[in-house]
Design goal:
With about 280 residues, this protein is mainly alpha-helical. About 70% of the residues lie in helices and about 0% in strands.
């Protein structure tokens, strides 16, 4: 009986609130900015202006459209290969390898990060290759954009400064050019014009790797001497369990800072390139 009485009492308390809620009129929806007041949906009459992009594919109607399609395809191919071209056909290869050698010679693992090393290599490459890039823009890119030369002429004008730059780095030691010319059974060239580009590029890559490793060996020698001195001192004091690298790294950093290592290194790297100004 108590449970029935409590249930009836609770139902009597909730009935006025239900009746009051049913008696109230429905609340109209809040209109959106710029929305129509008619109806209850409140949908904006003017939707935000969003640009519509339409990419249609159709058959070419003339030979010029076919040529333009081929040119566009070649341009996309060049853009895809642009990172490889920039890394292997410029001074970026030598600079990045030398800076990585410096990092390893100083026994540094995370400082400076690889992104910083690549950024330094990028801007030093732009500094070294600026005259070459300027000739490419003046003789190839700008006339092509103005329509005064064709794509084939623009390609030859852009290729010539890069070929000259690559050959200048191997002029003192053209052994790599002879190697690749011999592997292709090509006759001995009389001038740079007789060396194909597909021979000049791999020869330049091997030459840059060789020069970068030679510079890296010269950089390692003073730091190896410091490691040997520290290791001998620790052995004589009986501290065999103490890693010599932990003790030698501060001395190598002090030596590198005192001799202005970054300035000397940058100066010698830039001077190691043969640049036509």
């Amino acid at each position: 009986m108590k449970a029935v009485f409590a249930l009836c009492f609770f139902f009597s308390l909730s009935m006025p609130a239900v009746l009051t809620a049913q008696a109230l009129p429905p609340t109209p929806p809040l209109p959106f900015p710029g929305a129509s007041t008619e109806g209850t949906a409140g949908i904006p009459t003017q939707a935000p202006l969003i640009p519509f992009v339409d990419l249609s594919v159709r058959n070419p109607t003339s030979g010029q459209e076919v040529a333009f399609s081929v040119q566009l395809l070649l341009l996309l191919t060049v853009l895809t290969l642009a990172p490889s071209i920039f890394i292997l056909m410029t001074s970026f290869l030598r600079i990045s390898i030398v800076l990585d050698f410096v990092k390893r010679a100083l026994s540094l693992q995370q400082v400076p990060p690889n992104q910083v090393i690549l950024g330094i290599s990028l801007f030093l490459t732009v500094f070294v290759m600026w005259s070459t890039f300027e000739r490419i823009y003046t003789n190839s890119v700008r006339p092509l954009s103005e329509g005064t030369i064709s794509v084939s002429e623009a390609y030859r004008e852009a290729e010539a400064p890069l070929r000259i730059f690559m050959y200048n780095q191997m002029r003192a030691n053209p052994e790599n050019i002879r190697l690749f010319m011999a592997m292709r059974n090509l006759p001995r060239p009389e001038s740079l014009a007789d060396v194909p580009t597909y021979v000049l590029i791999p020869a330049f890559i091997l030459s840059e790797l060789t020069i970068a490793f030679k510079i890296g060996i010269l950089l390692f020698i003073p730091f190896i001497i410091i490691d040997m001195v520290v290791a001998s001192a620790l052995m004589s004091m009986g501290m065999i369990m103490l890693p010599p690298v932990m003790i030698s790294m501060p001395f190598k950093l002090i030596l590198f800072v005192l001799v202005d290592g970054w300035g000397l290194l940058t100066d010698q790297i830039v001077r190691s390139f043969v640049i036509d100004r």
